[in-house]
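Hi U.,

Before I forget, here's the chain from the pilot set. I'm dumping it here mostly so it's searchable later in email.
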Amino acid sequence: MKAKSTILLFSSCLALVIQFVLATPAHAAKCTITSGGVINLNIGESITLNPSKSTSPTETVLYSRHFPVSAISYTCENGATVNWQSAYSRSYAKSVYSNIYITEVAGIGIRMKWPASFSDAYYVPGKSLNCIEVCTIPADNVLVELVHIGSVAEGEHIISAGEIAKAYIPTDSGEVALMHVNLGSNIVIKPKSCAVVPSSTFINLGTYDSAYFSKSTKQGEEVKWNFHVSCPTASSIGLTFNSDNYLFGAETGEIGVISGEGYAKNVSVKVKINRIGSVYSYVNMGSKYSFKSVIEKNINMSAHLYVKDSERANITPGKVSGTLLYTISID
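Structure:
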């Protein structure tokens, strides 16, 4: 009898404990931004892509940009480990290509990464690693790439304006926003018979200290690269070069540098093109360069740091980078 009473008493206590646990709300870790503020990256440029109509034999980057963003920090109550996440804001399915997701335009994929200098784990959608109690994401870049991954139908296609990706802290009470990436205008896709790949180059010339800029030299180490033009049949084409880093009063071949935290100020980049033999000459920005009977052609380019003597006293050290844009026309 005593044993039976003990069992009944234990069962009653267990039931009370279960009721108490069920009645007690789960504690949701509260996370707040402590410095930097929510990042709102608005891609305001007008983007028109001209991929070939046919299926690309591999992923072909049509557009690639690094957008600098500031640092941001957050903390969560009670020392909670809450790792931030990134995601596409649209229903994009994963493609067969690494880290590329299929956009609303068949044959065109997107690849994004933040911070751009971090490991592959940070491609969108991604997750931070081991943010314990206090988490700081340093000032870096957001990589945005649009990629030709399949056949594109004839006609004009649109990737609509609006939010395209986000980063946030997941909590039991909802998402705490860290970053929004928005398209300021529609991206227009117009297939052409000839394509230039990629449509731009991010020129990274390295990082320079104050001691370097105090020297009399005007050039850093020259960086070389190439881009590819392809046409299904022999075609006469025109290539025009520009930069989204506008520089007032620029000399021939000169473009502005990316600005922001960690970037050098009052320096510029000079760009050259190789057209004949081994000779490179400075590019006239905005002017058309003609090429005849093109089926497959690599265009060789180079760039170097440029310092004007009139600006030498005003230079601040840091990274030196710029962006060169290519536009193709069929003549």
